[in-house]
Amino acid sequence: MRIALFITCFNDTMFPETGKAVVTVLERLGHQVEFPLGQTCCGQMHFNTGYRPEATPLVRNFTEVFAGYDAIVTPSASCAGMVREHHAVLAEESGEAALGRQVAAVAPRVHEFAELLVDVLGVTDVGAYFPHRVTYHPTCHSLRGLRLGDKPVRLLRAVRGIDLVELPAADSCCGFGGTFALKNAATSTAMLGDKIRNVAATGADVLCAADNSCLLHIGGGMSRLQTGIGTLHLAEILASTEGDAR
Amino acid sequence: MSDAGTNVVWLGSPTFPRAASAALANPQLRRNLRKATTTIRDKRLAATGELDDWEQLREAGAATKRRVLRHLDRYLLQLEESVTRAGGIVHWAADAAEANEIVAELVRATGSDEVVKVKSMATQEIGLNEALAEAGIRAYETDLAELIVQLRDDRPSHILVPAIHLGRAEIRETFVHEMAHWGRPAPEGLTDEPRALAAAARLHLREKFLRAKVAISGANFAVAETGTVGVVESEGNGRMCLTLPETLITVMGIEKVLPKWQDLEVFLQLLPRSSTGERMNPYTSTWTGTTPGDGPQTFHLVLLDNGRTATLADTTGRQALACIRCSACLNVCPVYERTGGHAYGSVYPGPIGAILTPQLVGVEHAETLPFASTLCGACYDACPVQINIPEVLTHLRAKAVAARRARRRTPSGEALAMKAATAILTSPGRLAAAQKAASLGGRAIARNGVIGPLPGPLRSWTDARDTPAPPRETFRSWWRRTRPQHPSGEQR
Prior knowledge:
The complex is a heterodimer of chains A (246) and B (492).
Chain A: E1 3-5, H1 9-14, H2 16-28, E2 33-34, H3 44-49, H4 52-66, E3 71-74, H5 77-94, H6 97-106, E4 110-112, H7 113-120, E5 133-136, H8 140-145, H9 151-157, E6 163-165, H10 180-183, H11 185-201, E7 206-209, H12 212-224, E8 230-233, H13 234-239
Parallel strand pairs in A: 1-2, 1-3, 3-4, 5-6, 5-7, 7-8
Helix pairs in contact in A: 4-5, 4-6, 5-6, 11-12
Chain B: H1 16-24, H2 27-49, H3 54-70, H4 72-85, E1 89-93, H5 96-110, E2 114-117, H6 121-125, H7 128-134, E3 138-141, H8 144-151, H9 168-182, H10 194-211, E4 214-217, E5 221-223, E6 228-233, H11 237-243, E7 247-253, E8 257-258, H12 264-275, E9 283-288, E10 298-304, H13 308-312, H14 328-332, H15 334-339, H16 350-361, H17 378-382, H18 389-407, H19 413-425, H20 428-445, E11 450-451, H21 459-462, E12 467-468, H22 475-482
Parallel strand pairs in B: 1-10, 2-3, 2-4, 4-7, 5-8, 7-10
Antiparallel strand pairs in B: 5-6, 6-9, 11-12
Helix pairs in contact in B: 3-12, 9-10, 16-18
């Protein structure tokens, strides 16, 4: 199977370790990962902020770059959702029939990392070791967008040494919402405060999620408050082994 | 906007972000909202979770509403015919002003200068009480929460629970100070016990029920096939209005029509379970025209458009017209839970308000509302008729941006930034250069690897959050450096 990694522009710039972790886990499971260098961005920020015509060239680039792969894996539930749900909408609005056909061929092959592991590769134990207290926040796009259900938690439960604790009001949005955090900063911060309160109540050392964007927001608040609680993308916990010094 | 008298948006209201900031700073409001929404949320989950066929019911409700909207013209004409046949009189109102005029004229013709009202969103939307007051007619709200809001000269902040922003101590104060101006005063020594407050309201309202010659209601549905109109409620005050007066005037949005009597089977399950978390609502009143010697002897049905036909023309946006006003989306919304309803500046708050209001008045008159959401999707999951609220929100955001673009001579800062982002993101080479600049800049302003509070446009982010300094090496640089054996893809 030809697996391509879609790192996402955000992770590429801010969280390269997450991408390395995806590669580590997949290679440990015996798969070869390719990284098409022509990739850039799925257009989610443009689409969600109302700039649809500006997002269409990004759809075009995405479908060209990732055509021909059996599976495209991405460590972002919201970017996976953007491609799978909304690229077709943009293709239709562009009026380009060919683009519509390309999207229809590529978009269904895009999988969020946990989805690829559990649904496509049929794995829940990836041989990880992570001896820390962890709580998991199901991000909105992984929970209600992609409907990941308990797949990420099943992967985490199989990690040796982990002390996985439940997050109260886990399904509540953290208040990030992309440009929402800028346009409605006060409301975003109010939601962030409640999320941090719940994370702190678990006594976890690490907050884990399938989207680094939400983690940047929650982690940024936790850092400002000096909570001492860290954040890690699911892939980075799954990549950890006995040899690591985390 | 359809006309200045409309209450769809409250004129002079601040934008959502501004109004929200003020609301967030009110701890009493936060407490009331948290308590109320959490309670209703849990009740709804219990009431919907006990049905094995809940998802099929939602699908059935959504399908019926889709059919109604597709053939709205036909069903409305059928309804007019059925209501007329049953002895009712049907009026058509294109906008709020027309509807208010029709109702005022109908009340005047009865010789009465007062009316009792059943809780109704449609009459809130058109600002009927204010219009009647101008015509010298006093309108008495009889729904307990609407009564509280009216006595305070306040505005409703929730579709189902208009006084959700108030605590019982505030309600007691209102009764003690205001009831006497509107009729029977509050009893001496009134406490803030819910039972005592309800008893005071009952005494105050009863004299109005017994005196009123005219009642005004909204409608939860009207059946095209039979001409039957219906209202569901919890208190029985609505039924007093619907049965005691001689004349009943119902104002109903045109989207409320249902094809057949049998369709009620679906909606009378969906509505109470989604709104109050009850298996059945306590009072379901239905009436078909007039019946000699029983109930109102004159019945008028005012069919209200007020922006609905324009909304119908938008095949994505029209989903908002399927709404049955259960308010489940408000109760699950993390934004509404914190800001409350007044911040939306409209009679329709919360997620449904964020998609309905801009469509009824034109998106340029409510352009911050489609952005008052994180797109978390909780509303879509809760909606009993499967309105894809996040889909309509992003659709309306695109409309808002397009409208702003058409209005402005020069592009906004945001528009320029988005355009620049596209230019960068359509070329991996330009992206790599931008990443390098961001990394250098980010690390230059960081202290101990963390970017703290910043001045300028990024303040709204950095005021509450630290940001890690961007790493020296992006993923793509790492890949190129460490894996020259996999030259996947071409750098352009």
